[in-house]
Every structure is written in structure tokens, then in C-alpha cells.
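Weekly modeling sync, notes
Attendees: AB, CL, MP (scribe)

Item 1: holo prediction request
CL wants a bound-state model with F55 before deciding which constructs to order. AB pointed out that an apo prediction alone won't tell us much about the pocket. Agreed to run with the ligand included and paste results into these notes for async review.

Input as submitted:
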Amino acid sequence: SLDAIDLQDRCELSNRTGMDSETLKRAFLNNLFYVQGKFPALATTNDYYMALAYTVRDRLLQRWINTAATYTELGSRTVAYFSAEFLMGPHLGNNLINLGIYDQVEQGMAELGLSLDELQEEEEEPGLGNGGLGRLAACYLDSLATLDIPSLGYGIRYEFGIFDQDIRDGWQVERTDKWLSAGNPWEIARPEWSVEIKLGGHTEHYTDDHGNYRSRWVPDQVVKGIPYDTPILGYQTNTANTLRLWTAEAPESFDFRSFNSGDYLGAVYEKMISENISKVLYPNDDSSQGKQLRLTQQFFFVSCSLQDMIRILHGQNLPLENFHKKFAVQLNDTHPAISVVELMRLLIDHHQMDWEQAWTITHQTFAYTNHTLLPEALERWPIELFGSLLPRHLELIYEINQRFLDEVRIKFPDDEERMIRMSLIDESGERYVRMAHLACVGSHAINGVAALHTELLQKDVLRDFYEMYPHKFTNKTNGVTPRRFMVLSNSQLSKLITSKIGDSWIKNLKELQQLEQFVDDAGFQVEWRRIKQHSKTELATYIQNNNNITVDPDSLFDIQAKRFHEYKRQHLSLLHIVTLYNRIKANPDIEITPRTFIFGGKAAPGYFMAKLIIKLINSVGNVVNRDPDVRGRLKVVFLKDYNVKLAQRIYPAADLSEQISTAGKEASGTGNMKFALNGALTIGTLDGANVEIREEVGEENFFLFGLTTEEVYHKRAHGYRSRDYYHTNAELKLAIDRIASGFFSQGDAELFRPLVDDLLNQDQYFLFADYASYIACQDQVAAVYKDQTKWTRMSILNAARMGKFSSDRSIEDYCRDIWKVEPVNVELRQC
Ligand code: F55
């Protein structure tokens, strides 16, 4: 019988757990035969990639199963990270790093005549996020597993992730991201844990057996959610947690009804409508458009996840009253904020709990992270739309609101204005449900993502809530994982660091500080510079192959890589480029530090101005890159389709990191951390986490410019007139006039008029006000770069002082202050 086989024997017989180079090679060939059904002569790169992925997956499975068994046995307190986005990036390399077998596998593949780099390149990355918010969720999963914290990521398995970006004639064009078409070896479907989701319809009121007045939801649509699980292995630990993403399908029973009535096409149509729910990621990273499908997506994944958690609770024989003791749920922005109401509904309507108890459990369960200060990004749903999709939830929101406003009235008597401002319902015009208010009321903790951001939330965006519940507010400065963004993406620098200070910095990033003792060590400086140069040369090759532009690896690599948005001010960097170009045109022999300006990033497909800025970058590049007067001293490169894979090539190659948002607009930023960790110097404003980065690295190692948040507020309040700057700054005027004249657009003076007019007449992001300070600061950057010893010194100190910005530190802060959860050690017992 199965039991008779010794567990250890089963492990070894299977070839599926051994980590030595020979076993790995054997397992790989085995998978090529028995999983891909190929032999080497017919195998494609994808076959090899898949065979290797399954080889790695087997090693993960052993840890995953042991982790699940341990948590089940112990009934461990668990973090559930609710996020509409998880921007994971490719899994293969990361799993090899975390398993500690990267070098063995690279060598094993080489012995078979295969390149591990090439196999990694083959992986289609799961781009299930827009930008910082989705990538933060992914870094946090890595840290949760690395710190041995029991956790689940819950989200949506979009069939199409963030669009692929192409550039045609300088314009962004979008293509659908078919990331699943070659199959996904990292996930396992768990149809046995499917759940049903109700949508639409109406409510009915009735009196139950105990004489209580109750409400029941009669939906007009039911969809099925199917979970797909991906193991998330920690670094050098046995802990493998789960990312559980939901796919929507039509329930079988639904086709039956229509089939029986003979409405075949109707049944197929219903099925199609259901499957639309998890079809595509909304590509906006800044504004909520109030589309019904988006609200449906949010409710869908939240309801699936909460039902799944109740199943887990019951599976461990824990009573529902313990929900908040078993689970800490983090809401990644307001996208999953409907959870607050859905948990209330499940407890009250499905499990007959009374209101007070349900509310205690609910608000002790949830905590809310805010990621934005932009008013247009705060989610609001028109009451009509909300009520037609979630009629029962609207009733519950009214009840929550009434009780909440009673509390406000008691704390702040006779303050009708405050009640209107704080209500969960915006009644100033068309009526809306305010999701941030719901999240604040329904959570026991509220946090911003950088110190300045949290302060501004308390002073401004969520001021009333801070006054009402000051104890709920904390700051949790973002962090990034050093595994993916150093060990994997910058292996040479990582190895140099390890050779000097040992490898414990990888799990304890503060130890990078020990590098300071080598800052004046000439040999170390040479090595440091050589590795940066190597990364720049590799990026230069990539640029040659993809953009057909030759760039000089000795030039200063000045990089801005992030979503395109006016507040991030990619066009401020453009004004700098045009200014340098104008200086050269006025005096071709001018002494100038050669620079390569590199941009990467996507614009939301409906964001005209952001797309126009991309077009302008490409247009300026076309002129500057070819003008013989420039003599190759300036190059402008737009790298298309910026994603996690490309980001991993970019960070190691940067000399200068552009973090130039208008003060008070960028909640935190996380690219700023990745660049600095890889030894780039930052030019930046006092915005988001830049403030803390500068504090850590020292002001003498940071290029600061621009207005402060207070100065921006002050200018706005006192009638900011950008045109005055245009008229008084000759270089600014020249730059704007060049763009406006059609110089970069083959004489077409209309093309960039919307941008130029906006800057002259509105300039709501204060480019003109910050221009002079930015240019002066850039001139200083250019001067320092000429002194390579000084620059290298600053670069080393930047990396050495980035310890605070590990996502491990962020997660430890969340665990201690919000989640109250402890690590659980996992031992390997079974295969
Ligand atoms: C996505 C969808 C909507 Cl509807 C709204 C916003 C987004 C989104 O992607 N936001 C986002 O990425 N925000 C960023 O979060 C980062 C992580 O906290 C911050 O570092 C960054 O400042 C912030 O803009």
C-alpha cells in the first residue's frame, strides 16, 4: 500500500526534490520527455523553459505542501493581503534565487548547451498590475514568505494583464497581453474550492423564526469563482505561501436552465458575460472611471476570498466568531474595500450573527492602506450603479453610515458640515458611495505609504477621519525586495557585496551599512565602477538591438522609468533635454557632460496628455540623436513596454534616478528605492519616500531641487501664473518656443500645442516654477559626474544606506503594529 513506502524513499525515488546539479539535470530531461513530450532535436526554447519550470516547481511543491500542513495543524494566524493587482514579474529566476540553486542550475543548463538567461527570457511575465501598487503587493508577498509569516495573497487572475506597449511613429499603441497562451507552469487550479458569487437583482424583507426583521438578497445572476494557486517561496526558508487568484466562469447549472428552455445562444451568451469579469485588468493607475465591470471585479474577488477564508476557518474547526483572530486582512487601497460590507453580509445574512458582533469582527479584521493623494483617484460609485449590482450591500452601507454618523454627532455635536463631509454617501450632486470613507470606518488601522504621505493624509485628504479616529492612523513606509531587485537582477554587484560583508545583508538589508568602511578603498571603488559599467554596456546592447540607437556606456545614464503621468513630470526632464540641446545649438563647442536619457513607462490608453508626452520624447529623440552638432553627446531613448523584466535590466545600469514629481503628489514611489539600492544617485523633489531616502543617504549624497509641498500649496492659493516664469527665464522660453514652433515635429506647430498651452496657462504640476531649480541641480549633477571618484563614493554610500527600504522592514512594521502576527517555522517532513 501507499503507506508502506517510506516517505524519504518516495522523495528520492521521484527525482523531484534533489538540489544537486546532477539530479536537477536528470529531472529536467525527465520533464522534457514526460511533461513536454519532446526530445532535444525537436524541443523549442519554450519546451526547455517549461521543463526547467516544472523541475523548479517540484522543489517548490515539497515546501508548499509542508507549509500548508504546518499551518493547518497549528491553526496559525494568517495575513490575507487583498489586492486587485499583483505585479509579480517572472517567477523562474526568483524561485531559483529563493531556493538557493541559481548557480547550480545555470551551470547544469550550460553543460546541456543551454543558456539560463535565454530560458528566463522565454517566460511571459504575469503583468497583473499597473505599477507601484501592484508591484508593492508582489514585494510584500516575497517578504511575508521570507519572514515565515503565514499569509495568502488574494486577487484576480486576469486573462489579459497590463497591455503590451508598442511604439509606432513615436506614439504608444496598445496590444493585448496574452500571458497565458503558452501555459502557466507556476499555478495549480483548485476547482474543488470554487465558490458562487451573486450579482444584481433585489432584496426581499421577511421576519425570521425568531421574529427578527431580516433582508434576503435575490440576485439575478450567479457566477462561479475558481481559484488558481501559485506558490510564493521565501528566501532560504521552507516557507512557501500561496497567491490565490480567482477566475470567473458561468456555473454549470446556469446553462442547464437555458438549455432546457431551448435557448442555446442565450446560455452561451450568459457564459460569455460571466467570463468577462476576470477578462482584463483596467489599465488606469490614477483615476477611477466608475465602470460597472470594475465594481463587479472588485466584488467578485472579495466575495470569493472571504468565502474561501470562512471555508478554511471551518476546515480547522474554528468558530466564525474567531474570524478576526484567525485572519488579518490588509486592503491594498480601496479596490477591495467592498469587503467591509461583504463580510458583514456573510456574517449577518448567511450566519445569522447580530449586528454588534458582526461589526466587531469586521472592523477588527480589516486594515486599509491608502496609496494616493490625487483627488481624482479616490474611488466613488454612483448609487444607482452600486444598488443595481449590489442591492443588499447598499442597504448595509446605509445602516453602517447611520450608525457611524451617530458616532460623529456624539463626538462633534452641532457640526452638520462635518457630517456631510464624512458621510459614506456623497450627496453634493449625483449621489455616490465613497469607498475611502467606507474603508476608514470599517478598518481598525489606516496607513499611508511614506512619512510625508501619511502626514498629508492626516492634514488633508483624510483629516476628518484623523480627528475622529487618531489612534487608527500609522505610517508604513514602502519597501522593495532585495532578492529580486539586487540578488537576481544585479548578481555581480551582489557578489561583490557578499565578498566584502558576507551574505546576511540579503535577509537583513541594514547590514549594507558595513560597506561604508570600503567607501574610500580604491580597489573597491574600481570594482564598483566596473560592475556599473558592465550593466550599462549590457543595457547599451539592449538599446542597440531594440531601438537601433548607439549609446555610449561612458555617458551618464539618466533614467526615468515609471508610469506616465503629468504629476510625475517626465516632461520636466524633457525641458532639460531641450535646454541642453539649445545650449549646444547656440555653441556647438560647449563643454558638456555626455548623457544618455532613457525613458520607460506606459500611459493609460485614454490619457491623451500622457500619450502626447511619449510622442514628444520620441520626437525630440529623433532630432537630437541625429543632429551632427550634438556629436553624440546627448542621446534620448524611449524603451518600449516597460515591465518587471525590463525594470530588472534598467536599475543596475542607472547612474541617475529621476524622481521629480510635484511635491505632495507621489505617495511614496518605490522605483526611487530600487535605483538607489543599485547605486544610482537620485535627483528628486521633497516628495513621497524621497524625503526619507535623502534622510538616510545624507543630503550631500542626494540632488535636491524644487518647491516643497507647503510652497506648492502657497503658490496655488495665491494665484500661480506659470507664464511669468516663461517670460523671465530665457532658457525656459527658448525650450518652450522650440517645442511650440514645430521644430521637433517636422514643422507641425499644432502637434504639441495642447501640452504647450497647458503649461503656459495652467501648469497645475508647477513645471515652470521648478524649472530653474531643476536645471541648476542638473548642472551640478553634470559637474559631479566628471569627478568619477566623488561620484563612485556617493554611489556606494547610497547603496550602503538603503537598509531601511527593504520590504522586509515594511512587513515587520505591519506585523508588529497592525497585524499582530508571528512567524511560524516550517520543517520539511513529507514529499
Ligand atoms: C491602480 C488602479 C487605480 Cl483605480 C488607482 C491606482 C492604481 C495604481 O496603480 N496606483 C499606484 O500604483 N499607486 C502607487 O502606489 C505605490 C505603492 O504604494 C506608491 O509608491 C506610488 O507613489 C503610488 O502612486
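Recorded for review: The CA atoms of residues 580 and 634 lie 8 Å apart.
Action items: CL to compare against the apo run; MP to circulate these notes.
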